[in-house]
Amino acid sequence: MLTFDIFLTLFFALIVSAVTVSIIYTTVSLGISPMPSSNKAYLAMMQLADETGSGTIIDLGSGWGNFVIRIAKRYPHRQIIGYELSYLPWLISNLIKKFLGLKNLTLHRQNFYQIDLSSASVLVCYLFPHAMAKISDKLQQEQAGVDYLISNNFALPSFQASKTIQLDDFYKSPVYLYKIAKIKT
Ligand SMILES: C[S@@+](CC[C@H](N)C(=O)[O-])C[C@H]1O[C@@H](n2cnc3c(N)ncnc32)[C@H](O)[C@@H]1O
Q1: pLDDT tens per residue, range 30-57
Q2: Which domain holds residue 153?
Q3: Rounded to the nearest 5°, which phi and psi values hold at 21?
Q4: pTM
Q5: Where do the TM regions start and end (predicted)?
């Protein structure tokens, strides 16, 4: 009995360690953790998404699915796509999607720098400055048909935001809406 208890404890310790190592590894290699947008940021992003018509929304780095799952429920007739490289957040968000039967949500375990943006109408992200610079380059090089980009907290270099919501949080964090096609420089 004691041996079984020890086995069980070691088994769970192994699982927790593997999960921790996996998250730390992807956080270090990607430069960002799978930290979800705050509820205030989500509400602002949703308010901005309401102004973007009915096209496909792509979350660049969908994390645990906090944004994509809520937005897929909010817009059942819109296609929502998430790209996430971190294995555990991608797995958990996929399980929740299946449990909730969200047929308009697709979650890919793929590097979003390598995706074809031609089917995207709206890009959404909560990343960091270096990633925003790479996305800006990608948008300018590919001349993709992206109409809008919504960014939590980080500005998109070389583009002018058409609307900014300042959150009522400690840092007065901005959430930006960019109209890509019209304001491209
Ligand atoms: C701060 S989280 C944002 C999660 C979600 N978008 C939200 O707002 O709640 C950023 C996520 O982007 C993912 N990520 C970063 N670079 C990536 C890349 N090149 N391809 C796919 N996912 C990436 C990270 O693994 C992380 O989970």
Answers
A1: 899 999 999 999 999 999 999 999 999 9
A2: 33-183
A3: -65, -40
A4: 0.91
A5: 6-32
